[in-house]
Each structure stands twice: as structure tokens, then as C-alpha cells.
Amino acid sequence: QVQLVESGGGLVQAGGSLRLSCAASGRTFSRYAMGWFRQASGKEREFVSVISPLGGMTSYADSLKGRFTISRDNAKNTVHLQLNSLRPEDTAIYYCAAGSWPLSSFRTPNYWGQGTQVTVSS
After folding, report:
1. I need a labelling partner for 96 at 20 to 30 A (CA). Which of 13, 80, 112, 116 fits?
2. Mean pLDDT per 10-residue interval, the chain, length 122 residues
3. Which residues pair with 6 in a beta bridge?
4. E strand segments, 3-51
């Protein structure tokens, strides 16, 4: 069992940055691909980014490449998502997830966090 707790969300102006963090419980963190999804109000949850279990490979939603950066620290059981050049359309609840690699498997993660709200004002 893996428990995930996100932090770092908040209100930011367009063009600003945020760094989301996800802390995971358990001793098996390094076995899981870790990543992020987001869900805007009235929309379906969508994939944002994933990082492989040992951190050597990453993948991003095409529309987010170049603005978001995912990283992980297996010694601290944490994964981060750096959000830069934020836009109002990035407003959503961001969910941390743990699952399998590669991306095709990660799209249905095994574990979810409770989510953290990101709001970008224009």
C-alpha cells in the first residue's frame, strides 16, 4: 500500500511559478513510476507527466512540454512538479499518482493522492 500526500498548490498570477510536491509512504517507492494528473472544473482528469522508477526517463503531455518539469528523490520518497509560465488554463486540481512504467501502463495508476488546488489568475 502506498499513501500519497500532495502539497505546494495555491494561487498565482499568470506567468508565475509553483512547485508541487508529493510525499509517499512505504518502502517500495522506488519500484513505482510516479507522476501527475490534473482535473479542471467540469473537465475530465488528464495526464500531466510521469517519471520512471529510477528517474532516468520522463514523459509529458504534449501541450505542457517546456513549461513543467518533473523530478523525484527516491531517498526522500518524494516527487516534484515544477510549474513555470503558468496560464489561467492551468487552473485545476493536481493529483499525484503511483503506478507502472511505461506511460501506457501509468495511465491507470495504482494509487492516488487527494489532490492540491492550483489557481492561476489572469
Report:
1. 13
2. 95 98 92 97 97 96 93 97 98 97 92 98 96
3. 22
4. 4-7, 10-13, 18-24, 33-39, 46-51
